[in-house]
Amino acid sequence: MKKIIVTPHAPTPIGPYSQAVLSGNTLYTSGQIAIDPKTGELFEGNIKDETKLVMENLKAVLAAAGMTFEHVVKSTIFVNKMNDFASINAIYGTYFDEKTAPARETVEVANLPKYVNVEISVIAVK
């Protein structure tokens, strides 16, 4: 059985997808980008602040499903410049305990939605 997860504390989807889908005890989030959920506006600023907003959006989606970053077992990070990885990783790492951090891959891509610099999705299990 699948349950669609929706929260006003994360950006409204900009296409035909859900913020997240809960299937059994497993949550699959859509990729989050740096859109301010209060205004719907795209964040423009430095990569660390952009990453923080992405992570806060993920935190809101996880909370809507009754989960936290402790439940995350897998994450995927898409970046448009691998040179930004150290800055992204510095912020990303503050959301996880290094000893129990999830599996992860980071992929450099040519472009991302709305031409953002970073997009992150996670899989979490309760």
Automatic annotation (TrEMBL):
Gene3D superfamilies reported for this sequence: RutC-like (3.30.1330.40)
InterPro entries attached to this UniProt entry: RidA (IPR006056), RutC-like_sf (IPR035959), YjgF/YER057c/UK114 (IPR006175)
Pfam families hit by this protein: Ribonuc_L-PSP
Highest taxon in the source lineage: Bacteria
Family, similarity comment: Belongs to the RutC family.
Protein name, entry field: RidA family protein
Organism this protein belongs to: Dokdonia ponticola
